[in-house]
Write a structure and sequence with these properties.
Two copies of one chain form a homodimer.
Chain A (H helix, E strand, L loop, with lengths): L1 H4 L7 H4 L4 H21 L6 H7 L14 H22 L5 H11 L2 H11 L1 H4 L7 H4 L3 H17 L1 H16 L2 H6 L4 H11 L4 E11 L2 E10 L2 E8 L2 H15 L5
Antiparallel strand pairs in A: 1-2, 2-3
Chain lengths: ~250, ~250
């Protein structure tokens, strides 16, 4: 079927009209996806096959398509660079610690998944729709990362940067709100401990020197048992990290 | 001193010759650094002040210079993207797990520090040279990351990509060697336990489901005490991660 798989030939309506019924329906589906993507991206996809891969979750039944995990790996790295650059320029007087924290507030799984759903990627992701677990999972954030990877391969870094700014950061990230949100994992963990009659303590386990800076290791201890540890340049951050890890480990993350 | 701080005016020899002695020496030092940088980068620095910041460790006595931590944050993200892209294209049939592991073999602190020293960045880094601890520390890898950040701001992504390929990956990374190096943190930790009469065990602490995939949490337990945990999609990787964390925490990393 060279017609289907060559570069965007399904756009050639004159030739598509000549196709037999089942092929015509398949091609129409592709034409529809192409239009949806064009509106979502703000430009027409160059290499359409790349975007099809980006939208394909492992659970997809269309086995002739590669799944999006490799593109997700690439997109994650590219998104990290673009958001890193954005914050570096937006906050010229903030420390690297602040920038790192802001970045993790933007590119964390929950946030990316929420953005992906708002962008309409739940509808476009190709996955096993009979698996009701997947419907409420965070695979759509992975689709978004894979999409960033596809844009990067298709159009290069600078165009990807524009896409991320215009279609992700501007419409969906409220920077002022994020600035004011304290990542308060400790409070959340204390709340859980209280409700479940557990004793929660944070213990300083270690103080090390690293390139002339002190690094603190703090452990989250529940009923005398060490659950998780966190490391940072100050005790407050270290205990927040330990609490965040513990929340993940105990399955308390929303 | 507008002459010194305006853009690379110290290159104007006719004007430099007119300077009084102490300024002439300062400017000569800058001219020397400019030449060293040109040879190291493979192109002349555009915005020289950026590169001076990239080379300045926190411990530097030259207090009028900003230190390189913000640029290190930026460079780390850019380097992650460039190396991510490089591996994605070099290994078209490898899984994202393999690519992630290869990347961490390339951009880990020890490796970056070794490369920085081979590139001559120990000599160029501006730091407190009376602090003998810093001399053997890993601050030069940080300089290298900051330098990548400076190149990115000065010349953009594509030029930075060329710089990283030609001046970092090609000369200093032996990909075939890296492919064959198993990250064997467990062996290392067992060696330490043996030598110090400790009992080391790896325990499966938890099995969770994440988007339809199983995630294993394995703990490194020394003399019955949980030291560190690692999470991964299989038990082997999870225990390697736990071992790696434990090596860091116990201060056994080289």
């Amino acid at each position: 079927m060279p017609l289907l798989f060559s570069k965007n030939l399904f756009l050639d309506l004159d030739r598509v009209r000549l196709l037999p019924g089942f092929l015509y329906r398949l091609v129409s589906k592709k034409r529809h996806l192409y239009k949806e993507l064009t509106s979502l991206l703000g430009f027409p996809p160059g290499n359409f096959a790349l975007y099809e891969i980006a939208l394909s979750h492992r659970s997809s039944k269309e086995k002739f398509l590669e799944s999006n995990e490799r593109l997700e790996y690439l997109g994650d790295a590219i998104l990290g660079a673009i958001v890193g650059d954005y914050l570096f320029k937006k906050y010229p007087y903030k420390t690297e610690g602040y920038l790192t924290e802001m970045r993790s507030k933007i590119v964390n799984r929950q946030q990316l998944n929420d953005i992906a759903i708002k962008m309409g990627l739940r509808k476009l992701t190709i996955y096993d729709k009979y698996n009701s677990f997947l419907k409420i999972s965070q695979i759509f954030g992975n689709t978004l990362e894979a999409l960033v990877g596809a844009v990067y391969l298709d159009r290069g870094y600078n165009k990807t940067q524009q896409f991320v700014h215009k279609r992700i950061l501007m419409p969906y990230i409220d920077m002022e709100l994020l600035e004011s949100v304290e990542m308060n994992h400790k409070n959340k963990l204390y709340g859980w401990a209280n409700k479940n009659g557990k004793v929660l303590e944070f213990e300083l386990l270690e103080e090390q020197m690293d390139n002339g800076r002190r690094i603190f290791t703090v452990g989250a201890v529940v009923d005398g048992e060490l659950i998780c540890t966190g490391k940072a340049f100050n005790k407050k951050d270290a205990s927040q990290i330990a609490a965040q890890q513990a929340i993940q480990q105990l399955g308390l993350a929303d």
